[in-house]
Amino acid sequence: MDHSCQDWMSALPEELWDLPLTNLAIPGSHDAMSYCLDINSPLLRSESDSFRLLDRLFHCFTRPAIFRWATTQDKSMEEQLSMGIRFFDLRIAHKPNDSSSDLYFTHVIYTHLTVLETLKSAATWCESHPKEIVILACSHFEGMDDRCHESFIFSLKKLFGPKLCPRKESVLTLRSLWASGYQVVLSYDAQTAERHEELWPDIPYWWANQRTAQGVISYLDWNKALGRPESFFVSGLNLTADRYYITTHTKESLRTLTFSNWECLKNWVEEQAPGSDPESLNIIAGDFVGPLPLCPLVIALNKKLVQKKNSQMKKHH
């Protein structure tokens, strides 16, 4: 494990402590919880009827394929935090016909682990790393009604308590967050969130829906040319294979696809810069953030902010 990334926020040079978090380069995890998918769980309700039928008839073929292509991570949340990941893409759902109020993470199927037991480990991690700021983006919420949302939000507030940064905090900087003891920015992509000042609106995610590094890069470059959003936003390095590709490449997996495209994506990331310019990036999220060195790559981009500041200082003198 790369311990240099474990407490990287508190290790940033002091000249970056007063910059908005939205101007820093922050490593993120796409579909962060898919490392613990339950191969025997039901399919998500949102999957098509034809796919359901296929899954019922050819379970022994569909399940291994789902597992190979829906698994985007192989490290636990705590391990990802210790590697330097600070943004988590969390897709949450309530299982059909489940009488308990347990919620699970999802990606085509459901996870073994429940949402609250996982977030408890994140809360514990935050306790022992008080200067690290974590952004949790909760979305999808399949099978959840208003009552389910309210009960979940109540649990989240109880779990993170005074660490939750309310959305009225207009500019979040490391210095201001440390001073107030806030550590968790919780984005909640549902209307219910508007009633709760502790929850932030959804964070835009640039998803290319492409199978090659070139496809992903040209999509991200196209978005960059349009100008960055004001607040947090995510550039997704994650690749997507369509059903035809999956059925015709039985020996491949999302992992092999990601690894074979990594070099090209890595080179692109190295050329990027964080900051407030229209073409600058903020959160950069990817798949397999454990074995691939996404964290040190993204964190290193913040050095460009220091260089920029220093050259501006020289100009003024």
Describe the 3D structure.
The chain is α/β, with parallel strands linked by helices and 317 residues long. Helix content is 38%, strand content 15%. The protein is built from 11 helices and 10 strands. Strands 1, 2, 3, 4, 5, 6, 7, 8, 9 and 10 form a 10-stranded mixed beta sheet that branches. Helix 1 packs across helix 2, helix 4 runs parallel beside helix 5 and helix 7 packs across helix 9. The longest helix has 17 residues. The N and C termini lie far apart (42 Å). The mean pLDDT is 96.
Amino- and carboxy-terminal Cα gap: 42 Å
Taken from the alpha-carbon principal axes, the silhouette is: globular
Reported for the largest beta sheet, the result is: 10 strands, mixed
Can you give the mean pLDDT?
96
Whole-angstrom Rg: 20 Å
State the secondary-structure class.
alpha/beta
Low-confidence stretches: none
Order of helices and strands: EHHHEEEHEHHEEEHEHHEHH
